[in-house]
Every structure is written in C-alpha cells, then in structure tokens.
Amino acid sequence: MSLIDAVRIEARSAPMSGIEAVANYGRDRAGLIPLWSGEGDMPTPAFISDAAARGLANGETFYTWQAGIPELRQAIARYHQRHFGKSFGANEFIVTVGGMQAITMALQVTAGAGDEAVYLTPAWPNFAGAAGIAGVKPVPVLLDMTDNGWICDVEKIAAAITPRTRAIFVNTPSNPTGWTADRETLQAILDLARRNDLWIIADEIYALFHYGGSRAASFMDIMVAEDKILFVNTFSKNWAMTGWRIGWLKTHPSLSRTFENLVQYSSSGVAQFMQRGGIAALDEGDAFIAEQVERAHKARDIVCKILGETGKVRFSVPPGAFYLFFAVDGMKNSEAAAFDIIDKVAVGVAPGTAFSAGGEGFLRLCFHRRLDQIEEASHRLAKWINAR
C-alpha cells in the first residue's frame, strides 16, 4: 500500500483547482494578460499597508485576541452600519484568516460527515471543496441562464433538500456568473430555510461590486436576529488585499464563543499588525472601493461590447461581481480552450469546468483590471473566437 492510500479519503479526493491548472501553465508567458484569478491588478493601497507597517514597527507581533482585536471588530461593525443601515455590535463579528477560514468554520458549525449542503452553481469551487473535505456532501442546484440573465429557481433548491440537508450556501453577487439575487429571491430562500430549519451560509463579499447604483440586496435587509444565517466575508476584493488572507464571519452574539474556540484550534488568530491594516481599510477605504467599482463597471462594458460584436458568444451582462462568464459557439471543451487561448493569444482565462455543474462550454474572465489591459485582452479573445 502506498502512502497516498493511507491518507483519509476526503483529503486525497480534494480536487485540484481548474483555475490553478491554467494559471500554472501560463503564468510565466511573456506578454500574457492574466484574467484567470478573482483579483484586481492594483497592489494594496498605501493607507492600508502603512497602518499595518506601523503596527509591525510598534511590536504588535504577539499572540492576540482569538476573535480579533476589539478595534477591528468595532470597525467591522461601523462598516456594516454605514452600508446596511442598521446597528451592529462588535461581538457579532469574528476575524478570520481570509474568507476560506470563515467558510470552513461555518461548515464546522452547521454540518458534519454524512450531512448535505445545497449550493447554487455554476459556483466558485472552494465551498464544494471545503464541504467534501469535511465529509459533507455538496449538492449543486443549477442557476438558469435566460435572455434576462441568470435566474435562481427557488423550487429547484426546495427539490434538492433531503432529510440530510443542513445548510444552503448562497453567493450573491455570484462568482462566476455575476448573478445577483433580488430581495424577493432572498426572501424566498430565507422562507425555505425557515420552513426546513436549515442554516444559510451567505457569501456576499461582492455586495458593493454592484452596478445598479447601490449595493446589492442582502439577507441583512430581511432577516431577524434569530435567523440561522452566517455571513462570510473577506478584505480581499474590496480593498485589494487578496494576499493578506484576512476576513471575517458575522454571527449571532450567542455563537461568538463557539467560533472563538474554532479559531483557537485552527489558526489561533490573525496577526495583530495585519488587523491594523484592516481597520484602516474599513474606516478610510470607502472612496477607494467606489473608484474600483466605477473602473470595474467601465471594464465590464468594454469586454461585453468587444466580445458581443463577434456574434459568436453568449453571455448575460453581469449586474454584480467582476467576472464575465461566457460561452463560445462550438466550444465543447472549455479546459482545452483555456490552454489554447494562452498558446495562441496570450490571455489567461479560467475554464468553466472549474466552476462545478453547468460550467462546461463556458469560460470565465476577471475584468477587474486596467481599462487598457481589458481592451487589449478583449481584442485578443475576439481574434481567437473569430478564428475558430
């Protein structure tokens, strides 16, 4: 028996990311424009980095609060109050090592081996991967692509619920489709969860990347305090902090001690000097976010116009997030297409197969980059599409 055979089956079955496979293939190509990952091209702004550097210089390198330093939890509460129009207590928030730790802990609290968790797909692959590692069966429910955009049929979610279902994972605005739930859809999902006594794990990290003039609708708009909803979030997207690996989880205050214990036995907390950067991001970063959303909006319109003019692609203009999920006429193998695009026109995109059920036949690109790069990448992609 080999060593791999002795590894727990859930661990050895964890799939390699289809995004990583493409990125590893093309990341060193000269002149390549990388649009495969879910991040922008700007480094973290100085007002955030400088705050972290001051904390480091001041010797904030020791063990710290498991749930996050009080100043950061208070800043997260202020951020939510500004953007969601309600009062929040600092004890509702737990600082995490990125959004992934928040998701992992949410699963640890809501489901275990032999349980099921429903999620909407095409989907960012990490929730299903994390569920599988935990022994939880991820159950996909397909969004429908229509002439009016991607649609969530809540009856499909209802049909996927079994006696083993413990949670529904909802990412809106969505990666990769840009699907953005309206208030009525969120209410229908919440009503369904209440009837079946299910948890909702809400990933609303792109709530401010919404092109309808204000933030996207949120479960926070309709929930009551005792609803079984956990919100996972991250500093990565809004403030150009993907490499920092810092995020947070919002929960009912009665569960804070439980989540602090889970932090203790996993990461033991986030470095205090990094949390100083998080405070600066939240308290001083609203203008930066607004600039990024405006740029992403322009970039979205550029790529949709150029690819749309080929007459050979099918997509829904995304109302939220910063991805375009598009199908190319005649393309049957999106993974092979992604590698071919790297070789022939030096643009990095992610294959739709990386995004679970319903992804084959699609490609995803991240348009959260400089407008000149997005325009150039779009023309290169159009060249590849027209040459097929």
Unreliable residue stretches: none
What's the story with the biggest beta sheet?
7 strands, mixed
- Class by alpha and beta content: alpha/beta
Rg estimate, integer Å:
21 Å
The tally of helices reads: 13
How many angstroms does the end-to-end distance come to?
Answer: 47 Å
GO molecular function, one term: pyridoxal phosphate binding
Catalytic activity: L-aspartate + 2-oxoglutarate = oxaloacetate + L-glutamate
Cofactor: pyridoxal 5'-phosphate
Organism: Aminobacter anthyllidis
Give keywords.
alpha/beta; 40% helix; 4-stranded antiparallel sheet; 388 residues; 7-stranded mixed sheet
Describe this entry's structure for a reader.
There is one protein chain. The chain has 388 residues and is an alpha/beta fold. 40% of the residues lie in helices and 16% in strands. The chain is built from 13 helices and 15 strands. The chain has helices at residues 9-12, 18-26, 46-57, 70-84, 98-110, 126-133, 154-160, 183-196, 256-264, 272-284, 286-308, 334-345, 371-386; strands spanning 33-34, 93-96, 116-121, 137-142, 144-146, 149-151, 165-171, 199-203, 229-234, 247-250, 313-315, 323-328, 347-348, 350-351, 362-366. The strands form four sheets. A seven-stranded mixed β-sheet has the order 2-10-9-8-7-3-4, with helices on both faces. Strands 11-12-15-14 form a four-stranded antiparallel β-sheet. Helix 6 (126-133) links the parallel strand 3 (116-121) and strand 4 (137-142). It is globular and about 60 Å long. Residues 37-381 form the Aminotransferase class I/classII large domain.
